[in-house]
Amino acid sequence: MAEKTFEQALSELETLVKELENGDIELNAAVKKYNEGMELSKYCHDLLTNAEGVIVKMMKDDKLEDFKK
Fold first, then answer.
1. Which residues touch 48 (CB under 8 Å, ≥6 apart)?
2. Rounded Cα distance, 52 and 23, in Å
3. How much of the chain exceeds pLDDT 90, in percent?
4. How far lies 18's CA from each of 22, 60, 66, 67, in Å?
């Protein structure tokens, strides 16, 4: 998957979900969109997990004092 921001990937995922919920799509196309959605979901999850790890590390290194107040 090409590099995307979290917001771009989430927007694409929301569009796919709406298309699938509409139900007016052929089975093969629905399966393809479902798989694309699963990839986007994993991509978003991985970005969030990575961001969480960075924040936790910064907090442990005491570099986020402004956020502790």
1. 6
2. 35
3. 71
4. 6, 40, 39, 36
